[in-house]
## 1
Amino acid sequence: MEQLSAGSKLDQAFEKLAEEKSISFELDLDTDPRSLKALDASSDPEPGEELTDEVAGLLSDMKFSVTVQSKKPIAESGEKDYVGMALKISNKDGDLTEYRVIGDYTYLRSDVNALGKAMGFPVPSVKDLPPEAGGLKKVLEGEWVKIDTKEMAKTSAEMGAESGAEPEPEPTLDAKTQKRLLEALRGTIAREVDFKTADDKDGSEHITATAPFRTLVTEFLGEIRPLAKHLPPGMELPTDKDLKDAPNAKVTADFTLKGGELTQVSVDLAKLAENAKVKKLGLVVRMRDGRTPKAPAGATELSMDEILGGFGAAMMDAEGFLEDEEGFLEEAA
């Protein structure tokens, strides 16, 4: 009875979310630098490509804030129904980068210096920019810029395509297929997941869902294989053979409901690492009131030619400076 009751409550909570036209949530990485470095080490990275302390610290402290808005309920929405999207990445020191897609434009702003320092790559200074790339000064100063979304998608496709090849259309997933995928997921969860419930003093309810990872994924993929022909090009499903070495440790997700509405989900993934040094590895999703993404005022419009030409020239100047400096040091030695 507890299984049926808990599963039904979760179903109803997700159905309420699916009926919304705007969804907002925050995603935190519940981890620490030591665990991330241990996880990276277990993947046997090439010499010089190991996760640095700076990047591990940056990743462990990241928070992602996401808003999606549609003209229709989310459950019924296809790609053309979405009218706004916003993503912000921040850490304890402030916002690192923000991205919004509204109308015909994509809006961007970043703390380029903070990202460059943490990721270990050189950042061109404003004085390195050629005169014709004056708009990129706004990027380096952390100001809002906007780019024609279609132009950006076209350029990205052309850069990724082989010489002379026609750019492939962006993969899409229609609303009907989305619904069938969701039904398959619900069926798999009903069969494979163990539920337990508990109440909090503040009136919220916790439902924990536990399942062996490989079994859950294998069963779900088995459910959706008949839908493979409806999936976008490039979305190939792994075979059971591909999954045979996947960890089958039990993973637990904790769902918090208040008034029947989902407010938080936390998932502990440490056991999947199969590494005793990975002590803390999880995800926490906190639901927020649906917001309306808005276009930032005063954004400077940039063309893709200006972006590629300006940054390309600036980076080449920076690389040339570094090469000259290395040559000078070698001659001095």
Note: DSSP finds nine helices and twelve strands in the chain.
## 2
Amino acid sequence: MADQHALRTDATGYPVSAALRWEEPPEGPVIVLLDQRRLPAEEAELVCTDVPALVEAIRTLAVRGAPLLGVAGAYGVALAAVRGFDVEESAAMLAHARPTAVNLALGVDRAVEEYRAALKAGADARRAGEAALAAARAVHREDARASSLMARHGFDLLDELLPGGAYQILTHCNTGSLVSGGGGTAFGVARAVHEAGRLRRLWVDETRPLLQGARLTAYEAARAGMAYTVLTDNAAGSLFASGEVDAVLIGADRIAADGAVANKVGSYPLAVLARYHHVPFVVVAPCTTVDPGTEDATGIEVEQRPGHEVTEFPGPLPAAPEAGGAPVASVAVAPPGVQAYNPAFDITPPELVTAIVTENGVVSPVTKGGLAELCDRSRSGNGMMSI
């Protein structure tokens, strides 16, 4: 298993990310994003030369996914520092771009702390910017490594829970290389199962209203050569009832200290279905997603997104972002002026979670003490843990 999860790096030793990279052209450093709004129809890149552009990319989901937002936030601080913008103002903008995903603020804070420490030690602005960039690159490396470790631990957990079989796995939203500096979280585990020849079928929830499953997970599954099928979110119950789901694998945007999991809306109903049908419900996320400062579900701010995402099907974006073309008009699917309820996330209580897989190992059953012990380990501690 070790070779297939090896960390991919470029010639300079930095992780290869499908979704984000730092570049230094002659006119100045930039952050280059794979514009996920355009997938799967078009693989187009979005170049951010300043923090407002990056914040807009985060808010409009051109770049998304908790682990990758941490990487993007750290690089955003570095971009502000190296280009001579106001670092503190830029950091505040980035940290609040999406409130539920804890990794974003953590990545921002880490790069800012290194920037401040360098200034305090007497560094000039250029060297302080280099310190922020070094911090961002470290966040990137660590996230890529965490992806590889989570894939191993998740594979071993499934083998323990469902020994010897080939699995039918149901997943929700998108949790692959598009949301990570490496191979992803839940999708990374599913891919490990596939590469071991033990994946019968990956069931992909379409994930309304923005179709991250149908557009993005299906895109990644096709590229990986996996056997997969897309379904509407409300068809999941019939799959469980017919015995066609062996395990549910999802990611997380924030995990409270007690193990409550905030993830893409639609995750909680899957947990309820899984419990009723005695199917393992497994959350895969790095320890940076566990927020010890949030005691339980009541402390998690759930992002409310615009109602038009529910009441309209958006038209395609212009073919060339830099050309300034206008997108095709959206198509209304509800009466004009209708109100829409559109939370980006829901929260699954810990008692419905079979296990949480992190880079440091697995906690099952999910308890506050077990989760704290697991995530307090040094990064060299990567064994299994059952409590």
Note: The chain has a mean pLDDT of 90.
